[in-house]
Amino acid sequence: MAADLSQIVKAYDVRGVVPDQWDEGLAELFGAAFVEVTEAEAIVIGHDMRPSSPGLAAAFARGAANRGADVTLIGLCSTDQLYFASGHLGMPGAMFTASHNPAQYNGIKLCRAGAAPVGQNTGLADIRALVERWSDDGAPEPTGKPGTVTERDTLIEYAEHLRSLVDLSAMRPLKVVVDAGNGMGGHTVPTVFAPLPLTVVPMYFELDGTFPNHEANPLDPANIVDLQARVLAEGADLGLAFDGDADRCFVVDERGEGISPSAITALVAARELARHPGGTVIHNLITSWSVPEVVREHGGTPVRTRVGHSFIKEEMAKTGAIFGGEHSAHYYFRDFWNADTGMLAALHVLAALGSQDGTLSELVAQYDRYRGSGEINSTVADQTDRLAAVREAYTDRDGVTLDDLDGLTVTSADWWFNLRPSNTEPLLRLNVEARDETTLTTVRDEVLSIVRA
Hints:
CATH architecture of the largest domain: 3-Layer(aba) Sandwich
Domain Alpha-D-phosphohexomutase C-terminal: 375-448
CATH class of the largest domain: Alpha Beta
CATH superfamily of the largest domain: Alpha-D-Glucose-1,6-Bisphosphate, subunit A, domain 3
Number of helices: 14
Number of strands: 21
Organism: Streptomyces yaizuensis
InterPro entries: A-D-PHexomutase_a/b/a-I, A-D-PHexomutase_a/b/a-I/II/III, A-D-PHexomutase_a/b/a-II, A-D-PHexomutase_a/b/a-III, A-D-PHexomutase_C, A-D-PHexomutase_C_sf, Alpha-D-phosphohexomutase_SF
Radius of gyration: 22 Å
Helix content: 25-40%
Shape: globular
Family: Belongs to the phosphohexose mutase family.
Cofactor: Mg(2+)
Structural class: alpha/beta
């Protein structure tokens, strides 16, 4: 009977519980189908620290080699290290990770050569169809000879490449606490930071895919509590928290306060515009007003997109943008094959702080100009009905504009909010920003009263 992959093949990746929803047998078929669809002669494969990752990656490699592709295994790596290998080696790639999901999950992030994303509309649907067919009938016998499987360590090259993209020459010594969440940051941070004038205080650097200390998702405030306390206890200049596959980075200032990813987006945008004057910067529609303001002030062109990495990468490719940022702490760089890398964003923060004498909170204040609610989720019985009710409440209001780029965005002179449905859960997600706390509270409470009515 053909495997039902509808629960594990998502919009941009493969993700599910191992072995209940998928296993090494299916991973082998995914490897074969990936080569078939991409027509790749050579591919690169990496994996994170989850207990199931090495076996799944090896099975995928077998399937790929069986279809004639030469396979380069880079072993333990962060997702952005896999993107580096794909770009640097000019090969399609596969990264085995489920990011911040619990230990029983695993997944595959796929890309074409140069780290170009593979999603539903760019090959993933075709890969799924082949795997479903082959799981029932068996994969056809390959006609050519099998490919080779070799191992290669790319960690040092990855670290050198990242450091080459940031001017770190004027950095003063800094003390930084890094919470790797038992994820791949514990593998990459020591090598990337090694030559820098940093005193690194490591937290949870032991690679452990069961996540014994906390979930490896730094956007949840509960997961940065330990980091905040340690920054204060150590008298550190800042703290950094990485997610499970270390492609996202969250920043904490010297007071133990979390810094909005929008402020980091604005800071990095200003620095990238100094390197690439007049460039275009992408930001999704729930980043702060600060981001397009800072981009314009530094001579750049801001472009607003929907939420989600596929939209950001698509827009970056179309516009030739130099940088892109999301409020989820994903940061994309043209100099990194338009792929996202939290580590490069972290290096920019370290360089910006280290090249002047003030504190991080003082530095970031110029990029953090408004009050934000953060994302507020509401469980609703009917997303369409509640969204329509909010639309009706604001449609004829003076001085207000509405747009539908991604859900509903309502904008006034002193505030804006975006309300959009989750694609996977019965939720509406609300983000509000205003010029002051009182206005923020008023708008937030009014929208929530309609959503939750």
